[in-house]
Design brief:
- By secondary structure, this protein is of the alpha+beta class.
- Among the domains are: about 40-175, Alpha-Beta Complex (Topoisomerase II, domain 5), CATH 3.90.199; about 255-335, Gyrase A, domain 2 (2-Layer Sandwich); about 395-485, Topoisomerase, domain 3 (Orthogonal Bundle), CATH 1.10.268.10; about 515-585, no CATH class; about 610-755, Neuraminidase (6 Propeller).
- Helices cover about 30% and strands about 20% of the residues.
- It contains 18 helices and 34 strands.
- The strands form eleven sheets. The protein has a four-stranded mixed sheet with strand order 14-9-8-17. A four-stranded antiparallel sheet has the order 10-11-13-12, with helices on one face. The chain has a four-stranded antiparallel sheet with strand order 20-18-19-23, with no helix packed on it.
- A hairpin with a 5-residue loop joins strand 15 (about 345) and strand 16.
- Helix 2 (about 55-65) packs across helix 3 (about 75-85) and helix 3 (about 75-85) crosses helix 4.
- The protein starts with about 20 loop residues before the first helix and ends in a 32-residue tail after the last strand.
- The model has no long low-confidence stretch (mean pLDDT about 90).
- Belongs to the type II topoisomerase GyrA/ParC subunit family. ParC type 1 subfamily.
- This is DNA topoisomerase 4 subunit A.
- GO terms for molecular function: ATP binding; DNA binding; DNA topoisomerase type II (double strand cut, ATP-hydrolyzing) activity.
Length: about 750
């Protein structure tokens, strides 16, 4: 007998390790790493320079390529290649799209990239491929990177460790608020609209004087966003203050428009500025769609006459149209009015994402500028100290020129001898040995002494600056004033574009202005064909029908009305007045508009009147009162209201006010030729069901029901005349009674002649 022993699998080679980990823990750990990477390294801007990593790397790569504002352009493909090859290992399309946006004057308030070629337009057209376009940096971008060579910020290794890149820009420009930011991360997002640089500088100046300045005082200096596409800001001052105080909110922005007078009392409306991030072509397409669907009855036409500037022409339907009412209608239904959200969720100086209020954002910029000032000052002091050390060695050499020359000529190790003889440092000795012969002129010695004195004075001044906090903040205030001087309101680019308007008063636009309302006459045949004629003619003549068909009912309505169709299955079907086919033909089967079963007869068609009530009855003599609002269905299948008993059919739908005055009694007549009149308040008001017994029937069916006013008596047609029975006493009773024979001359078909619907 042989015993087999199962040997364990060999351990993995190459130093690999296999660990048993719950799936939930492994997924959570990896998703958290992904979320943090998205938040910190991709989607949220840094509060100090207002840039995302891709933007920062784009600017740094262009700086490395020496694409200065005064220099030449380079192909965007070259820039994108350097960015994805050295700094940003992502797709070239994403990097190029980010670059294009930095160059679009309608997308950013202060472009950081100057483009040459097709960089898209406000219509929403895309930029040309990056192999066709060229770019260079703007003066704003240059200010953003001022001091990179002076140890102003920290550098870190790139993704492959071969080079270094800045972790944040020195940002001698308030880019976060000036250009705004948009980003969606994992579980959080940021949305900051652009602002005016001059107003930002005014708010910064106030904070330099008092870091505890209340938000209300800052908002007085920075009253709201300033969008590159202009427009009119119509948010209330209180709402703006609240948004800036919490870091969250929204700003209501409207297009700018003017009224142009034409001849013969006509006019047209011209839109010259549209809201931020609204594509003009899609906006016009939306207006055109509303026109096609007859949702803008006050507007006749829309035209795009834009060239370099925006010019959208709106032609009113008539000279009597109120332009403000027309624009209010457009503001409500199109992107001529938008809401720009504010969510100042940014990475703070420690790289932690959080929502800041306006004061915190401004203070973060000032603190960053303070840190940059200190680091640049210290870097300059180090440079000065090194230069002074070298100049000190030069002066010693001039004072002992003959001995220095002898040592260099005769000694085997002149550097060591120079250090020992004249008590020099290693740096000084190396500088003397590297000195050119032409520098031994007397004039050069004088210039060295002059440079030494100047650097010594500068060194003392910088040391005093580092020691004096007040002087540092004064210097930062001067830098802020310089930003305002270079980019503020006195420049064409710095002028405020978005007008600060008042919050609009809520305007009630009448329904006549919102919907195209036309009178129509609806004709329904017994076979279920429906059509509408324009207007309310006194006589409809002799309408044509298919062979074997005839008139069922004629009603007067408006295109804005809802029509309620009652069928013998007890269901109500809703038909929109503007969906009924027009013309003098046969129309179309109503069963194509609503799903009425083929075995159900059409009982009644009437205009829906909100708040009205109707009396429903079935052939078994049961019925109830229902509010019309309960009869309106939302689908083509209709709404079940009256449920007839087995073998019975719904057959009657009567208004409670057939003559405009609500009745107080119900008159019923059956096929057994019995008439019963009883008070209306004895009939229950229900929403659905079989109802209550209106009239007791034995071996008979209900023929007709009508609502009347007792004081007016009971009327019915008799030939070309109308007969009225004033004394109804013989037929008065209670609900569910048998009734009595009708009065003399009552129609032999046992109906009241329609009773109106």
């Amino acid at each position: 007998m042989t015993t087999t022993t199962k040997t364990p699998p060999p351990p993995p080679s190459g130093g690999e390790e296999i660990r048993d980990t719950p799936l939930a823990d492994a997924l959570g750990e990896r998703y958290l790493a992904y979320a943090l990477s998205t938040i910190v390294a991709r989607s949220l801007p840094d509060v100090r320079d207002g840039l995302k990593p891709v933007h920062r790397r784009l600017l740094f790569a262009m700086r490395q390529l020496k694409l200065d504002p005064t220099g030449g352009f380079k192909k965007c493909a070259r820039v994108v290649g350097d960015v994805i090859g050295k700094y940003h290992p992502h797709g070239d399309t994403a990097v190029y799209d980010a670059m294009v946006r930095l160059a679009q004057s309608f997308a950013v308030r202060w472009p950081l990239v100057e483009g040459q070629g097709n960089f898209g337009n406000i219509d929403g057209d895309n930029a040309a491929a990056m192999r066709y376009t060229e770019a260079r940096l703007t003066a704003v971008a240059q200010a953003m990177m001022e001091g990179l060579d002076e140890d102003a910020v920290d550098f870190g290794p790139t993704y492959d460790g071969e080079e270094d890149e800045p972790r944040v820009m020195p940002a001698a420009f308030p880019n976060l608020l000036a250009n705004g930011a948009q980003g969606i991360a994992v579980g959080m997002a940021t949305s900051i609209p652009p602002h005016n640089v001059g107003e930002i500088c005014d708010a910064l100046a106030v904070l330099i004087d008092n870091r505890e300045t209340p938000i209300s005082d800052l908002v007085a200096k920075l009253p709201g966003p300033d969008f590159p596409t202009g427009g009119v800001l119509v948010e209330s001052a209180a709402s703006i203050r609240e948004s800036y105080a919490t870091g969250r909110g929204a700003f209501r922005l409207r297009a700018r428009w003017t009224e142009e007078k034409l001849s013969h009392g006509l006019f047209q409306i011209v839109v010259t500025e549209i809201p931020y991030q609204v594509q003009k072509a899609k906006l016009i397409e939306r207006i055109a769609d509303l026109l096609t669907n007859r949702k803008l009855p006050l507007l006749a036409d829309v035209r795009d006459e834009s060239a370099e500037d925006v010019r959208i022409v709106l032609e009113p339907r008539s000279r009597s149209v109120d332009p403000k009412t027309l624009m209010e209608q457009l503001f409500r239904q199109t992107e001529l009015e938008t809401r720009a959200s504010l969510n100042m969720n940014v990475l703070d100086a420690d790289g932690v994402p959080r929502v800041m209020d306006l004061r915190e954002v401004l203070l973060a910029f000032l603190d960053h500028r303070h840190a940059v000032l200190v680091r640049r000052t210290r870097h300059r002091l180090d440079k000065i100290a090194h230069r002074l050390e070298v100049l000190g060695g030069y002066l010693i050499a001039y004072l002992n020129l003959d001995e220095v020359i002898r040592i260099i000529r005769e000694e085997d190790h002149p550097k060591a001898v120079l250090i020992d003889t004249f008590d020099l440092t290693d740096v000084q000795a190396e500088a003397i040995l590297n000195m050119r012969l032409r520098s031994l002129r007397k004039l050069e010695e004088m210039e060295i002494r002059k440079e030494h004195d100047g650097l010594s004075a500068e060194q003392a001044d910088l040391q005093d600056l580092l020691a004096d906090s007040g002087r540092r903040w004064t210097r930062i205030g001067e830098q802020v004033a310089q930003i305002k001087q270079d980019f503020g309101q006195h420049t064409d680019l710095g002028k405020r574009r978005t007008t600060l308007g008042e919050a609009p008063v809520v305007t009630e636009v009448p329904i006549e202005a919102m919907v195209e309302r036309e009178p129509i006459t609806v004709i329904l045949s017994r076979m279920g064909w429906i059509r509408a004629l324009k207007g309310h003619p006194e006589e409809i003549g002799d309408p044509r029908f298919k062979d074997g068909d005839s008139l069922q009912t004629v009603i007067r309505a408006q295109t804005t009305d809802k029509l309620l169709l009652f069928a013998s299955n007890g269901r109500y079907y809703t038909i929109a007045g503007d969906r009924i086919p027009r013309g003098r033909g046969f129309g179309e089967p109503v069963r194509l508009m609503v799903d009425v079963p083929n075995d159900a007869a059409l009982v009644d068609l009437h205009v829906h009147r909100p708040g009205a009530k109707r009396l429903l009855a079935a052939s078994d003599g049961r019925g109830f009162v229902v509010e019309e609002a309960e009869c309106v269905g939302q689908t083509k299948n209709g709404k079940q209201v009256l449920t007839p008993a087995k073998g019975a059919v719904a057959m009657i739908s009567r208004p409670l006010d057939p003559n405009g005055v609500e009745g107080d009694h119900v008159a019923c007549v059956g096929t057994h030729r019995k008439l019963l009149i009883f008070p209306l308040d004895q009939v229950a008001t229900l929403t659905k069901g079989r109802g209550v017994t209106l009239m007791r029937l034995k071996d008979a069916a209900l023929s007709d029901v009508i609502v009347i006013r007792k004081a007016d008596g009971l009327s019915w047609p008799s030939g070309e005349r109308t007969r009225t029975e004033s004394d109804l006493t013989p037929w008065l009773g209670n609900r569910a009674a048998v009734g009595k024979l009708p009065p003399r001359g009552f129609p032999r078909d046992n109906t009241f002649g329609g009773g109106g619907s």
